[in-house]
Amino acid sequence: MGYETILYDVKDRIATVTLNRPEQMNTWNDTVATEVYDAMQAAGADRGVRVIVFTGAGKAFCAGGDIHSFGGDPNALMTKLPRPFDMRKRADWQTRCSYYPAIPKPVIAMLNGATVGIGLIHALFCDIRFAAADATITTAFARRGLTAEYGMAWILSHHVGHARALDLLLSARKIKGGEAERMGLVNRAFPSSTLADETYAYARDLAENCSPRSMRIMKAQLWEVPFQTPHEAIMSAGLDMPIANQCADYQEGIASFLEKRKPNFTDD
């Protein structure tokens, strides 16, 4: 794949999408947006991929928007999508930043360094976030005269609650990975020296030991929760259960448990 601003690699059934503008601290522009979307869709469609890791090259995950791309028509940014609209999918997961929930595989954001503004938005729409303990994380917008962009207010409050979201948005203060873990902004914070090892160990465990079908359905179930009543969630789960009980992955999960061996899931 001939990308200009990212790297794409698949190994051990894990696709890695790496923002690759280290001299610019992996700042975000339209080319980055289009290429990341394309790579995520490719990984989502590849049966040889079971987990996706999203990270940055160099010292930053993504230090916000590329200031050299600012100044265009702000209304155009809201309608300029790097993809066609799909009527079969929830509209909420088809915007410039919010498409990760629609990808049928776990997406792990590995925040190796500065995660700022739009970079933080993309990380928040991923499924899992692991951060370096010394990574700097900030919403940034209030200190640039901007507002909470691309659904940041919704997704931030979804993860950390109303009060903490207001704190992080209004002050735009910088926090480190350890504080981000304590408030639930990231799942875990690791020393920077072990972040990659810990992230890929987790990703390999999912790829090797967890049913792709199970992960796909559970991911979809969790991202539907904000739109459901408890009864609707229970009804939806009730429809999935009898299908899961008849699928090949369920039979393999039981057999591998009884035979005390690694499972050989096929996503069937």
TrEMBL record:
SUPFAM superfamilies found in the cross-reference section: ClpP/crotonase (SSF52096)
Gene3D superfamilies: 2-enoyl-CoA Hydratase, Chain A, domain 1 (3.90.226.10), Lyase 2-enoyl-coa Hydratase, Chain A, domain 2 (1.10.12.10)
Top-rank lineage group of the source organism: Bacteria
Keywords from the UniProt entry: Lyase
Enzyme class (EC, first level): lyase
EC number: 4.2.1.17
Signal peptide positions on this chain: none
Gene Ontology MF terms in the entry: enoyl-CoA hydratase activity
Family stated for the protein in its record: Belongs to the enoyl-CoA hydratase/isomerase family.
Record NCBIfam families: PRK06210.1 (NF004857)
Protein name: Enoyl-CoA hydratase
